[in-house]
Amino acid sequence: MTNSKNIVDAVIDDHKEIQAYYEQYLANAGNAHEQQKWANQLIWEVARHSVAEELVLYPLLEKKLPDGKALADKDRAQHAEAKKDLYELEKLKAGTHEFDALIAKTIRDLREHIKEEEQIDLPKLQTAISAEESLKVGKEFQRTKHLVPTR
């Protein structure tokens, strides 16, 4: 992996990618095939991202921050809710009213989760670890995403 990022940048870049996939889903309204493609990409990315956070980021929060366990536990609970939604989405067809409603709810919840991570968790972590450690963990995060199963 030649594109090494620190942990904060790696997580934020993923958040942007998730949003971009949802925007592509919306941009293809009326084209069920394209919407399904973008929905699948979104589901796949959220699954990989969640697992990488749970294996790499959250243990680091617990280790490095006084309130890290509480932050990580809250994040894990939010992930559990998102995973339930993703599982339900996989049973539905993209472009249907039911699918559109559930994917919109999922994205609303994810945006709240992302906002909390970017405004609370990541800034706290950034001040608690060295730049070198942040790069090392960022690389581990990116590598983990490439290795995790998504179902």
TrEMBL record:
It comes from the Eukaryota. Coiled coil: none annotated. Signal peptide: none annotated. InterPro entries: Hemerythrin-like. Residues 7-125 form the Hemerythrin-like domain. It holds the Pfam family Hemerythrin. This is Hemerythrin-like domain-containing protein. It comes from Rhizophlyctis rosea.
